[in-house]
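FAQ: What does a multi-protein file look like?

Like this. Sequence, then tokens, then the next protein.
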Amino acid sequence: MEKRGELRTMPLPVKLTEEELRARSKRLSAEVKECEREEQVLEDTIEAAKEARKAQENKIAALRAVLRATAEVVQSGRETRDVEVRDEMDWKASTVLTRRTDTDELVASRGMSEAERQRCLFTTAADAGLEAIRAHEAQG
């Protein structure tokens, strides 16, 4: 058999020396640790992304609620606001009438409570006395 021919290389199994085996073991250990770190980074990234998604979904839900409320206002041409009202006592009917001060519209009516009926006796008497004193002072 002739040994002439072109030399080349090809991958073939080679038995490692003790030193090469220790170096490869050390490298393997480092690579395992790096892989575990990268897996943890991936898990942390996934968890953070889930939290970010949930926060974004909550933001969108809040914006949609605002959109619905604004659309309802635009569609109806009305919105609920704090409006100044006054309670008027209707002594004859024993009712309390609630009226808007801006339009004088009656918005609620209810029966007087027992305490309101009692209070009105004293208030009426006190108011009458005050009016008499003021009238006397005005003449005076």
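And here is the next protein:
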Amino acid sequence: MGDSGTTGTQAGIAIHNYCNRNVVVGCLSALNWDNGIEIYVSSGVTTINYQNIVVGNICYKNGYAGIMLRQARYCIVANNLCVSNGQRETNPATYPHRASGISLVADAGYESIRNKIIGNKCFDDGAGTQYAGIYEGSNCDRNYITDNDVEQNTNIPIYKTGANTIVKRNVGYKTENHGTVTVTGDGSTTEFVVKVEHGLVSDKIAVSVSCTKPTTAPPSYIFGYVSDEDSDGFKETLVITVKFDTAPADGEVVEIYWRAEVVE
């Protein structure tokens, strides 16, 4: 608690095999040869580290990941600052977990699951080494990655593999969005189509739409769908159609509210 691990020849702070229910809080781990903070099980060791907490630390310019969880379960990693890690990794595209702000990895049969990664800020301050903000590798699932700030990493804000991992409300990796658009009546038009870019990281999204009621009559239907308007293979555009049995009056403005959320 409140300690520091800097310029070390290995990891700055290490919680290794068979270590459970430890707390790492308020520490500085910087310029180390290996990971900044690691909750780690050595390769080939058949165990899992449970219920460790890593909160409120600074991990800066370490050789590999800022915070590394390997074969970890029920751990909490929250409110940490992970900046420009991955200093020693020369091939981050092949080994992104070694050049990330926060990494979760595991061997088959010893999955890293049910961890909470919440409220962290992971970014590269210009060093060009922190490839990913938060990286969830193979054999990881059912983790909760939410409310982090992952802008300004060199390549990947968040990478996840777990089909059941929840990723929500992260700055720099938008999985939810909403907005308002308007249509204006001319006294004769009864069907309006508007288009807006949803701005999400995936086009596998659920959409809900509604609108204000004009003085003439409520809409007979309103719906939205996603469309690939620029033909690049990604459906970036939300197309909203609203129809009225009676046309809105000339000059009458109808507000249309939309919300979209990634479902994969």
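Q: Is there any per-entry metadata?
A: Some entries carry free-text notes. For the entry above: The chain has a mean pLDDT of 94.
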